[in-house]
Amino acid sequence: MIRASAALHLLALAVVLIEPALWPGALVGVALNHLLIAAIGLWPRSHWLGPNWTRLPAAAVSRHEIALTIDDGPDPIVTPLVLDLLDRYAVQATFFCIGEKAARHPDLCRDIVRRGHAVENHSQHHRHYFSLLGPRGIARELQAAQDTLMAITGQRPLFFRAPAGLRNPFLDPVLTRLGLKLASWSVRGFDTRTRDAERVQSKLLGGMQAGAILLLHDGHAASTPLGIPVVLAVLPALLAGAAAAGLHFVTLRQASLP
Fold first, then answer.
1. Would residue 71 show up in a list of annotated catalytic residues for this protein?
2. Any idea what the Cα angle at residue 89 is, between residues 246 and 87, rounded to 5°?
3. Are 119 and 155 a contacting pair, CB within 8 Å?
4. Strands 248-249 and 94-97
5. Could you report the per-residue pLDDT of 83-138, keeping only the tens digit for each?
6. The overall pTM is greater than 0.85
7. Phi then psi for 118, rounded to 5 degrees?
8. Residue 128: helix, strand or coil by DSSP?
């Protein structure tokens, strides 16, 4: 995709140099190309801009594994309750943590790892304009989070999830340089915006199958009308449903093993 885009730009330049009167058509072609790239960057589960984990590898599927990923923490109120629920069901999860939040709550971040879960990179500041950053800005965000999370947990993150899943063509080269794999999800319940726990639960249960990557949030979590964080209202039925279906929760790191 990126090579084709570069070739189109060169072709447009050549056309204008050979026949200047054709510049409007060349400009339209380049503009449409940029719109296409922007649209693909707004599609979190796209594979067009580089490798992207939207499901677990085939080996994990054959082992009936499933992954629970939890974003935007750690949160001093919600995360400990999530950890207690996971302990109760003997489930391991992957926490995509924001570097600056981890720095504010290092003991909580260490507790995530101590309980057998994985802490991965969700950028240092979770900037809403992350997908508009250039290669240097992306590299600063990812490297800062790598340094922060490794200093706290003693483990180097192996996976990265972009804020809101949005990205641009500059991301993949940075991931390659830092040895990170991009991970999005198979199904999400939009639990940062939806206060209806049953709706979120139904969405996630509907996508529950071997190899699925489920997404919930301990940070920026919406609350039910009763004031309960949606993630806490949804997790018991979700974890019980997976057990009843014979599915085994693993971290993304565990799923990557042959």
1. yes
2. 145
3. yes
4. unpaired
5. 999 999 999 999 999 999 999 999 999 999 999 999 999 999 999 999 999 999 99
6. yes
7. -110, 140
8. coil
DSSP character at residue 257: -
Both structure tokens of 13: 């330049």
Tokens of 128: 């809403």
Q: Does residue 217 have an active-site annotation?
A: yes
Q: Which of 71, 72, 172, 218 is catalytic?
A: 71
Single out the catalytic residue among 105, 191, 217, 218: 217
Amino acid identity at 126: H
SS3 category, 204 = helix
* Cβ neighbours, 10 Å, residue 58: 9
User: Tens digit of pLDDT for each residue in 15-34?
Assistant: 778 888 877 776 776 666 65
Side chain identity at residue 148, one-letter code: T
Locate 41 and state its tokens. Answer: 């960057």
